[in-house]
What we know:
Layout: H1 10-17, H2 19-28, H3 41-80, H4 87-124, H5 136-161, H6 168-193, H7 204-236, H8 269-291, H9 299-389, H10 414-417, H11 419-422, H12 424-427, H13 433-475
Helix pairs in contact: 2-9, 3-9, 4-9, 4-13, 5-6, 5-8, 6-7, 6-8, 7-8, 9-13
Amino acid sequence: MSFEFPVIDVSAVKKEINLKERARTDGENNLPPENSEVFSSCENDALTNLDQKRHSAVLQTANYLEPIKNKIIGYTAMLRKTHFFINEFKNRNEQTLNTAEGRLSNLKNSYETQNQEVKHFKMANNLSRDPRSLTLVKIVIGILFCLGLFLIEVRVNTKLLAPAMTGGESEGQSISLAVAALNVFISFLAGYFLVKNLNLAKGTKKIISQITLAVYSFFIIYLNLCLGAFRVIAEEKGKVIAWGETQKIVSQAADFGDPLYFWTVHFSPWAAVLTLVGISFALFSLLDGYFFDDPYPGYGALGKDRNENKKEINRIREHLPTETTLLYKNEIKRVGDERNKFISETLKQWSINVTVLESGFAAYRRLATKISDDLDHIIGEYRSINSNFRKDPPPKYWRDEAGKIKTRYYDLPERKTNPEIVFTDMAQLYLKKDQIEESTKVYNNKINEEYNNYNKEINIYKESIDKKIAEILAKYNVT
């Protein structure tokens, strides 16, 4: 990538200024005169013509190099700056540690408070074991067991009651649903809220629970005995022939007694089975509620909260070293990638653009040298033709200080040949080839040295972070 300067045709310039004709005419008229110290009109026209071509090339070159200059300035600024800063990494680590420690502090305070409450509960109730807290598995098993009891009882009671109902199995199922709901669900709640309170050492809550449980137990037994009596009345009427068989017409149960006064009824085997099924399912559901969570009321919830806080503390303690190590690894990778990017992209692009600028300056020098040589050739030819036709001695400016005819007729001044003067706004960015190579090495070494120093600094900082993490882990150890 370099700028291509226009090719200057010397013969075309000669024709443009009518060199040969004007040189012959000037010679015949002894022009320039012998005492002249300045160039002739023809020579000046040659200077003007080629200088215009040079100036046009300068403008085109400047336009071409302007974006190159801006790129070099940008890349130079990037290469000279400090690339790796540890403060941002430190801030991320400190934020991680502070967040973790703040969370651990709150959790540990809650854990210690709950742990004291657990100890007080043990002492108040003469316990030596830890709470048996609810888990998701226990919840699922307890609920499924309760639902299973309900569905089984509904099914069994329906089969036992259907023969006694005018509506058959559908009507028997309606009664079974109501009785099973009382036997299973209400018994489950009684086991959970009442039976557990019997484990309390003392207190009004225990007495109230004893009274309520006694009333509820009487109610459940009475309910199931009445249901059995109802089944007996159906048998007495002779409507039940065999298990699951019935006639379509059933007489009024009142003719054979009242099921609410079950003691007036003589229970048959199936009626006894119906009663025992209801009472048994109520007892099973009562036990399900009792063993759902810890048998001591509130003890399981207290232990659950304490254990959840302990679990969260241990999770944070376990995760903290991993999190900070991941931050460290990501930072090392990021800095390594950034260093490689600076070398492979930024430094490379800087070198390419500075080389383009150097090539542009070198090309301009060649153009200026050619223009200088072309002018020397044109002026030399003019003077040669002029001297062949003139009679007077050659003008003064054709001679050197020693009075001899010059053999080198013209040289462009340095202000027109030196690109560092012609392109003043780009001169500070210009470097020669050996300077470009040297600067590339300097920048490369700077980036690598800065990268190595950063790695040393971050490793030292990592050691301090590891020590701080160890202190945090020891401080919030609740094992």
